[in-house]
Amino acid sequence: HTSLPKKKQFTEPTQMRAAIRPGFLGGNLPSLSTTQAKPIFTPSTNPNDVLVKVKSAAINPVDYKLPKFVAGPIFGLDFSGVVENVGESVTDFAIGDAVFGTTPTGSLADYTVVDTKRIAKFREEDWSFLEAAALPTAYVTSLQGLKVGKVSEGSSVLIIGASGGCGLAAVHLAKAMGADRIIAICSGKNAQLVTEAGATEVVYYNRNETLQAFFDENEGKIQCVYDAATGSGRGEEYTETSMSLLIPDSGEYVQLNGPTSVWLKGLMLKRLAQHQHLIITDMNTADLEEVLLSLKEINVKPLMNVMPFTEEGIKEGFDLLKSRRTKGKIVFDLS
Known about the structure:
This protein is an alpha/beta fold. Helix content is 29%, strand content 24%.
């Protein structure tokens, strides 16, 4: 008689590709590993988590600013992908769902394990995986910042550093919130870009007399100043001049960054000036869903620089991020 062919045993991969922080402190040059251990996931030990096969991942300045002992061995926060397994307490997500959000264990890897509070579902007919990965940090930060800034129908908003990832996100969302005066501060070469995104006025930061004239003429006229430039690495400092622009008693100054003194006062002492706010992103499902709805309402997609997930692609992406001349988001295609 003939013996039946043996069934092939399918073994789960135990290793994966990942952009890792090398060395003890993790330096700031990522290297691509193909032998990183795949995260271990079991529904009982990860009851509120999902295991995600990452399709796309995006990077932010915080990725190269934080050391390895704070941020962990794998680079990246923002990702999109497909749910491969769910924890036993998870009811809102199922295997096969397309999801996006942030992961604290590193997004530039083939797999990640993440708490469902930090992700949301999206429809693949509405968004590509690349587009979804570009949204979480930049857009949720901007949404929360503009809400702190009390932006609503008819508001005036000044966005400083308007052509970067967070700046463009703020322009898009200010438009979606119904602001009727959206002023962008950026370089002259990005004027068309921010105007197409929804800015109603553009002020060039590299023309000092024009910039000064703007600050002089708009004293006390702005509801929200959203500052994505101060403290971001090139010595920009807009805090003092921005505070003078606020509508007395109701205007709000919202900053994403600042010198150590601001972090100390804002985070530890909770003693920033009245109407001055330092935004620390609180990633959550509801705000991720609101971002999708807001962008759909104004029919806008994020601006992206798509890179391959290769050693060269990773180097190019991080070089571009550090140059601080990026328009929009840097997104890696892991699919």
